Amino acid sequence: TSIAVMASGRGTNLKVILDAVKAGDCPVDVSLVIADKGDAEALNIARIAGVEHVVHVNPKDYSGREQFDAECADLLDKHGCQWIVLAGYMRILSSAFVRRFRGRIINIHPSILPAFAGAKAVEDALLYGVKVSGCTVHLVDEVLDGGAILAQAIVPVFDDDTRDTLHARIQIEEHKIYPATLKRMVEEGFSIEGRRVIWAGKQ
Ligand code: GRF
């Protein structure tokens, strides 16, 4: 199964996915990595791991989100990517992009959705004063951080937490559930009933 990873930042989730693939723990082939930022560490991680196609698509070269997304979409199709894995990808996808790859885009978000959607999830959870938080792997639809939930993991929130300490604790869980969920998607498969993901059961 050929997948693409789209990232904007440090790329630690990309790294653990590539490590899992290499270790034989995740039966996918990361054939394409796209970053929208030229200095994204994710690009280096992909190159070092030997990903075949590593591309910086610069939003400045396009007249708007639709054109930018159309370029990314063409790349994804050209390389036959079955799944599109967002890993710290900080751009909101256009609805045309979401429609084109409906049910094939997944994201990881640093909160227990539906609480704290949006770009400041860790900070918002801290400010709200919740005592547990965590991360969510979910399908992407037109609603920001709103698609069906594939997996979640929780962590405690401590009184002396800062955004960075809480985020670091959440990322430890992200790094476990993202490769594990990808593996399960590919090996086991699922269907959707309403909002619920029904795993197919081991074949
Ligand atoms: C993660 O916390 C993820 O939940 C959020 O962005 C962050 C990406 O981290 N969507 P990294 O770039 O994979 O380290």
Automatic annotation (TrEMBL):
An individual GO BP term: 'de novo' IMP biosynthetic process
Known pathway: Purine metabolism; IMP biosynthesis via de novo pathway; N(2)-formyl-N(1)-(5-phospho-D-ribosyl)glycinamide from N(1)-(5-phospho-D-ribosyl)glycinamide (10-formyl THF route): step 1/1
Listed EC numbers: 2.1.2.2
Keywords, alphabetical: Purine biosynthesis, Transferase
Catalytic activity: N(1)-(5-phospho-beta-D-ribosyl)glycinamide + (6R)-10-formyltetrahydrofolate = N(2)-formyl-N(1)-(5-phospho-beta-D-ribosyl)glycinamide + (6S)-5,6,7,8-tetrahydrofolate + H(+)
Enzyme class: transferase
Binding site for (6R)-10-formyltetrahydrofolate: R65, M90, R91, I92, L93, N107
Gene Ontology molecular function terms on file: phosphoribosylglycinamide formyltransferase activity
Residues at the catalytic site: H109 (proton donor)
Residues annotated as binding N(1)-(5-phospho-beta-D-ribosyl)glycinamide: G11, T12, N13
Domain Formyl transferase N-terminal, first and last residues per copy: 3-181
Site (described: Raises pKa of active site His): D145
Any one Pfam family match given in the protein's UniProt record, by short name: Formyl_trans_N
GO cellular component, as recorded: cytosol
Family: Belongs to the GART family.
Function: Catalyzes the transfer of a formyl group from 10-formyltetrahydrofolate to 5-phospho-ribosyl-glycinamide (GAR), producing 5-phospho-ribosyl-N-formylglycinamide (FGAR) and tetrahydrofolate.
Name of the protein in its database record: Phosphoribosylglycinamide formyltransferase
The organism of origin for this protein: Mariprofundus micogutta
Lineage, top ranks: Bacteria, Pseudomonadati, Pseudomonadota, Candidatius Mariprofundia, Mariprofundales
Gene this protein is translated from: purN
